[in-house]
Amino acid sequence: MFSQHAVKREHDAAPEVVRHSRYPARLSMYDAAPALEVSIEEFETFALDRLQVLRTIEDAQLRAKNDDDARRRIGEALDKLLPLHTNRSRLPVRQLMGERRKDHVSHFILRLAFSRSEDLRAWFLRYECALLKHRFRAADAAERHELLREARL
Predict the structure, then answer these.
(1) Which pLDDT tens digit goes with each residue over 21-49?
(2) What's the rounded mean pLDDT across residues 64-78?
């Protein structure tokens, strides 16, 4: 009477829902600041988690034995503190959007915090670029193409 195909799970519709959301792509150039409310607890957690990731990148670049070791250290920090799954992952849409929201909001929190001096801006830019480079290398061809298309490059 009931077939398995008749029941549509939330994650089965993920690619279509995500494509039409505020965060359609996993990789972002952070063109526009988020226009949403964030609780004080989220603000603090988001900022500290991203800062820890950027410090891990700095540490990995300075202390890692080789590129593979650096990528491993950065990957572990990202998986723990700032995961960002693909549209094709089997995660619920709500979780995908939560990850992207945290990534987007935390970028702008630190962007604001590190705007106080030229040295702080340079540090932030250096390690945000390293983070994007790490994510870009880990992305598949479709995600890379989407980022470049979005950035009009």
Answers:
(1) 677 678 888 888 888 899 999 999 999 99
(2) 95
- In whole angstroms, give the CA distance from residue 37 to residue 103: 15
Tokens of 30: 């952070």
Q: Is the pTM of this model over 0.85?
A: no
pLDDT at position 5 over 50:
no
Sorting pLDDT into bands at 50, 70 and 90, what band is 88? confident
Tokens of 2: 């009931």
**Residue whose token pair is 């995660």:** 91
The token pair that represents 67 in the structure block:
């590129």
The neighbour count for residue 14, using CB atoms within 10 Å, is 23
Q: Look at residue 66 and give its three-state secondary structure.
A: coil
Spatial distance between the Cα atoms of 87 and 85, rounded to a whole number of angstroms: 7
Backbone angles phi, psi at 31, to 5 degrees: -70, -35
DSSP letter at 9 equals P
Helix (H, G, I), strand (E, B) or coil at 65: coil
CB burial class (10 A; 0-12, 13-18, 19+) of residue 54? buried
CA distance 54 to 50: 6
For 12, which DSSP code? Answer: G
